[in-house]
Amino acid sequence: MLAGAAVMLLVLGLVNFYIGWHLSVLLQEWLPGMNIAVYWSVFLVISFSYLIGRIPLPQALKPVGRLFKVAGSYYLACMEFAVIMLPLTDLLYGVLALAGVGLSAFVTEAGATLLAMLAIFLIWGSRNAWSTVVRSHRLNVDKSIGTSVPLTVAVASDLHLGNIVGNRHLRRMVKEMNAMNPDIVLLAGDVLDDSIEPFIRNGMDQQLKLLKARYGVYAVLGNHEYYGGSIAQYTEVMKNIGIQVLQDEVVEVSGVYVVGRKDKTAEAMEAGGRLSVDALLEGVDRTKPIIMMDHQPTGFGIASQAGVDVLLSGHTHRGQIAPNHWITRRLFELDWGYLLKNKLHVIVSSGYGTWGPPIRLASRSELIKLEIVLEGSRSYGDEPVSPAAKPVLI
Predict the structure, then answer these.
(1) Where in this chain does the record put each Calcineurin-like phosphoesterase domain (predicted)?
(2) Where are the CATH 3.60.21 domain residues in the chain?
(3) What is the DSSP string of 365-390?
(4) Cβ pair 389, 109 in contact under 8 A
(5) Which residue from 49, 50, 236, 241 has the fewest beta carbons nearer than 10 Å?
(6) So what's the architecture of 133-393 in CATH?
(7) pLDDT digit string (tens) for 236-285?
(8) Residues near 56 by Cβ (< 8 Å), separated by ≥ 6?
(9) Are 122 and 370 in contact (CB under 8 A)?
(10) Position 390 confidence tier, pLDDT thresholds 50, 70, 90
C-alpha cells in the first residue's frame, strides 16, 4: 500500500509539474517579472489541496480543511482538462514549428483559447452536475403479487453527500422522488462521500427522513461508506430516520422481495466478505418478484440464473467527466443505462451526486423512476419489456 501511494504521489507530482510549467510560461508572457518562487508555492498548494483537505485537523481548523477540499475538487476537473488538452496543444505547436510557421504569438493565443475552453467546460459541466434528469423505465416481470396496479420504484445512487454535495441538492432529490408517489424508494449505495461528519453536522439525515414511500425506504452500502469507516454509525443513523440499510439482507414488502448486497469492497475490507447471490437468496420464493441492489455493476449472469428480476447498480458515474466513460464502458458489461440479460432487467445509474469535482461531461445527474408491470397488471398487447428511458429535466 505504501509503495502504491508513493507511485501515485510521484505520478501526480509529474503531472502537476507538467501543468504548472505550461501555466508559468503563459503567466510570464502576460506578467513579465512574475516571482516564479511565489508562483510555484501557490500552484503546489492548489494542485495538492484536495489531498491536504483530507488530512485530519483539529476542530478549530476543520473549516480550513473543508475549504481546501472544495477548492481541490475543482482543481481535479481542471487537471483532467489540462491532461487532455495540453498534449494536443504541444503537438500542434510541434507541427506548426516543423512547418516553418511563425509562432511568436502562439503562447498567448493558445493560452487564451485554452482558458476560454476551460471556462466553458466548467460552466457546462457544473450545469450537468446540478441539473438533474429523471429517467423512466417500464419493466414487465412475469410474476404476480395479486394486484392489478404496477409497482412504482424510485431509485437514486451515488449521492456522495458531504462537503460538496449538500442539503440544497438533497432537498431537490427528496422533492422529486416524493413527487413520483413511489411504492418503494431504493438508495443504491454511496449515500456518503466517505466521511460521515458533514452528513451529521449539516443534518442531512433529517432531509433524507422526508423521503416517503408506501412500503418503505431501503439502502445498500457503496464503496465510499467502506472508505469512510463509519458503517455502524451510518446504519444506526439511517435506522433512526426509518431507512433500513440492507447488508446481505432480504426483506419482503407487499409480496415483493427487496434484496441488498454488501458492496464488493467488503470482499477486501471485511473478514467475512459478502454472501454469494445464491446464499443470499436461500429460502426466497423465486415465484415472487425479486429486486436486488448491488452497488457495483457486476455478476449480471449470476443474478439472472438465481432468479433475480431487477438488478439496480450505480458506482460508475458513467465516467463522470468525458472521456472517462470510454474507460468505464470497457470495464463493465454495462456502465450506464438499461440491459436485458435473459429475463433480468439491469439498470445502472450515472448517479445523483458527484465524486471530487461537481462537474459532469458526457454524463448527467439522474434519478430513476421504475414502473414494474407484473402479471395481472398488464393490458392486452404489452411487450415483454418496455424500457422507455425518456428523460425529464428537473
Answers:
(1) 152-318
(2) 133-393
(3) -EEEEEEEEETTSPPTT--S-EEEEE
(4) no
(5) 236
(6) 4-Layer Sandwich (3.60)
(7) 999 999 999 999 999 999 999 999 999 999 999 998 899 999 999 999 99
(8) none
(9) no
(10) low
